[in-house]
Design a protein that fits this description.
Length: about 625
Amino acid sequence: MTEAEPRLAQALHCLDAGEFAQAEALYRALQQEFGDTPGVLHLAGMLALKQGDLAAAGRLIAQARAGSSAFRIVADHGLLLAQAGWLHEAVSSLRLALEQRPDEAALRYQLAKALYALNEREAAARECEAALAARPELVDARKLLGAICFSAQAFGAALDQFTRALAVTPDSAETHNNIGLALSGLGRHAEAVQSFRRALALKPDFIAAYSNMLFCLTHVETESAESVFAAHRAFGQAFAALSARWPAHGNLREPGRVLRLGFVSADLWNHPVADLIEELWAALDKNRFEIWVYYNNVIEDGMTARLKACAAGWRPVQALNDDQLCGLIQSDGIDILFDLSGHTAGNRLPVFARKPAPVQASWIGYPATTGLAAIDYYLADRFLAPPGQDDGFFTEKIVRLPALCRFRPEPDAPPANPLPACANGYFTFGSFNRNAKLGDAVVALWSRVLHAVPGSRMLLGAIDDDAVRIALIGRFAAHGVDQGRLLFQPRTDRQAYLRLHHQVDMILDTFPYSGGTTSAHAIWMGVPVLTLSGQALSSRQSATLLQHFGLPEFVAESEAEFVRAAADWAGRLDELNGLRLSLRAKISDSRLFDAALVARGLERAAVVMWQRWCDGLTPESFELND
């Protein structure tokens, strides 16, 4: 041990204990006596970190690391790299530190956090389990393991981990929120809403929990459109005071100039939202519109790279707080800012509440109002939001495009096969929607269909969680449906998922939150979707597709009509087989497949919204025809 080491250890102890002045005094004495040794540089870096100077801390600790492999220096270097967002480098450094001290559970948890942020879930789970084996009371590791289970859609396991964490920290708003998410994933929405409310009672400014509760409410069958709207409007009212601080936008009020369109999203990777917008962004007229992106995620893949190629400006913004992101959007001179998330995960609605752009709109990511007065418009089409039907349930003005978005079929999707019922001798209904959409009323209605079609089966896809499968068996049994009539399939890759449609004669849609992308995939595979259109916009996503595709006969307006239609089609096998084999050709000329047409509609909407702002007019609903 060198002469400096005990004093360095004392200084670091003081720093860890919050005795900053004493730590700084020890540093000055050590620096004067020993100069810039690795230990002294490391101490200087930690002092800089405590002062909030991340850049200086990173520089000093990197210099220390270059001259030393001491555990504390290597570990703190890894932690600092993680804090700065250099996650791959952080993982390497943390693993080196753990080679020296494998039982450092808190450090192993930090490694798990970095791995999870890199989407390396299995490795992150192993590190959490190792940390908990060393320190079972390490609640942060328990919560992270629950989050990993949740991201893998193992909702039962996630609920178990979060519940165990709550036993240690019963007043943790974060854990109540996470329990709500797990319950929602299990389809237990009423319980989930209560968990979100408990989180908000403990932490009233917990915006993510508020958004989670609102998203959950859109899935609750017993909630009316009025009550869901009232809850969203209350969210917006919580931000009403910000309107006094809205900036005076200096954007040039010139209708004909090039417009900067900003898009805020956490879903610009292999995600349904990204799939819907990729070809639209590519088709936008770059002589009239610039695309500026504010990406609220660290996940990047091939889809991310292709979207980047469409953008004039690309800003990673996950590390920015709301005021910082608001300032960045303003400094970029965005004319129209689009929210692509609504109240789904990773949204930045508090930024929109600050009104960083003169015109703001919500599009694609959420089938309900945001509730924010600062968002001027909501983009839909006449099938999704029929004129006069939804305007009272939105704080935004509704823009009805010729078509809301562009559906892109998988280029190597297998061809439709003959109706399986013709060979099987029984009819197979199916669903590939996420389990969170399978509420009690859905299971009850589907059970009525199965009773109305004797011998029929129900194939349920994307069921990976044993807890979910067992619960579904029990829920169907409560309505007299035997387990033998239920066919469960796990989540799989895209090609295998599409091939599963070869086993299904007809899709039964969910409500009040209907299918979207899954319904489009089914129809492309020749499998019609029977949907129950409701009062809420979220219940009309499949109906919108069916109307665009010229298949209104598969849109039911009541539960009785839904059951009658299912039984009727199950008795018309030849007709259903003919439709199945011709459906892809029948719908191929739909406007939903025309990226250029949808892009022109978005451009026209942008021009109208911008013209109104230039003229000093308030936002108003409008419709664009072909």
